Amino acid sequence: MGAYLLRRLLLVVPTLLGIILINFAVVQFAPGGPVDQMLAELKGQGGSTLGRLSGEGQGETTGPPRGESGGNEASRYRGARGLDPAVVREIERAFGFDKPWPTRLGEMLAGYARFDLGRSLFQDRPVAQLIMDKLPVSISLGLWSTLIIYLVSIPLGIRKAVRDGSRFDLASSAVVLVGYAIPGFLFAILLVVLFAGGSFVQWFPLRGLLSPGLENASFVTRAADYAWHMVLPTLALIIGGFAGLTMLTKNSFMEEINKQYVVTARAKGAGEQRVLYGHVFRNAMLLIIAGFPSAFIGILFTGALLVEIIFSLDGLGLLGFESAIRRDYPVMFGTLYIFTLLGLVMQIIGDFAYTLVDPRIDFEARR
User: Fold this and answer.
1) Which of 75, 260, 329, 347 has its CA 20 to 30 A from that of 182?
2) Which CATH number fits domain 129-365: 1.20.910.10, 1.10.3720.10, 2.170.120.20, 3.40.50.300?
3) How many angstroms separate the CA atoms of 104 and 252, rounded?
4) Using H for helix, E for strand and C for coil, what is the string for the chain?
5) Closest listed residue to residue 119, CA positions, set 317, 321, 331
6) What's the pTM?
């Protein structure tokens, strides 16, 4: 197992490099860019933007960015029409676009090797600091949603498998499929309308993870307020996650229950609970438990964008969306780098979880 894990860890580097190179190449052909964004802002605000680029104002000056696309000719940018070419060149220099793309790519990769993700073009803050500031929101949503989905879906799926074809099975299937049919963002809007001051009552807050003024409160008070803030966003995320895992659990147990070793165990006089949890459980739960890391990453990084927007939660989903809209390439590529790295590591953890659930699995023996 050790040699297998070492090989998987070594494969992380070329895989990560390939993903970054592909996305960097795609960005080279994408229309628009941060220079276009700044030129449009410059035309709309006069000289104030250029003053900020020169360090005379607040917050827009940056060091050389990493991972951007763009060219060196003023005529390349549609927003440059009617502007002094010297102004365009100053913006290119401030954003690092005066360098050819191989140089920018090399600087980006060298920084990533040191876990230096560069600085945001439009927020004048290190990308790593931006990610760390947004991470608590996304981890809260992803962790609690994944845990609740597993804690509810697995017992429910086992119960449905044991009582297959009963009224309970049919009724619960109808409920989870209806929940699956409702998009998470639509359910989030419904929760806001019903319980967050939309049209009925205002039992839950809509913004942030902590109410204003509670920063110095006791731990118990802050924990209770945090849980109060997390109720509606977590419900919006988990409503559609029950169906898939519940049905997967049921089908896994049904497949194992019908196998010959279960019939043999029952013929030897083993009780139903011993058969179910002593023989069936380990085999049926192999795929489900080992898939937990991937499920957590999926909810953490891809499932919370609209929920974050609806509940005004400033997390990684909203950060990635805003950086894509503004063409803030250091943030785009920095988040891509972190997300991809975590995803690859979680896949390795998932493989390792297989061996924990069932020690009979030996990846070294595979051909």
Assistant:
1) 347
2) 1.10.3720.10
3) 50
4) CHHHHHHHHHHHHHHHHHHHHHHHHHHHHCCCCHHHHHHHHHHHHCCHHHHHHCCCCCCCCCCCCCCCCCCCCHHHCHHHCCCCHHHHHHHHHHHCCCCCHHHHHHHHHHHHHCCCCCECCCCCCEHHHHHHHHHHHHHHHHHHHHHHHHHHHHHHHHHHHHCCCCHHHHHHHHHHHHHHHCCHHHHHHHHHHHHECCCCCECCCCCCCCCCCCCCCCHHHHHHHHHHHHHHHHHHHHCCHHHHHHHHHHHHHHHHHCCHHHHHHHHCCCCHHHHHHHHHHHHHCHHHHHCHHHHHHHHHHHCCHHHHHHCCCCCHHHHHHHHHHHCCHHHHHHHHHHHHHHHHHHHHHHHHHHHHHCCCCCHHHCC
5) 331
6) 0.70
Residues whose CB is less than 8 angstroms from the CB of residue 136 and which lie 6 or more positions away in sequence, other chains included: 209
Give me the average pLDDT of each 10-residue run along the chain (367 residues). Answer: 78 89 80 68 52 42 43 46 64 70 84 86 86 84 84 88 88 85 82 81 81 82 87 84 82 83 80 76 74 68 72 80 82 86 81 71 60
Domain boundaries, the chain: 2-127, 129-365
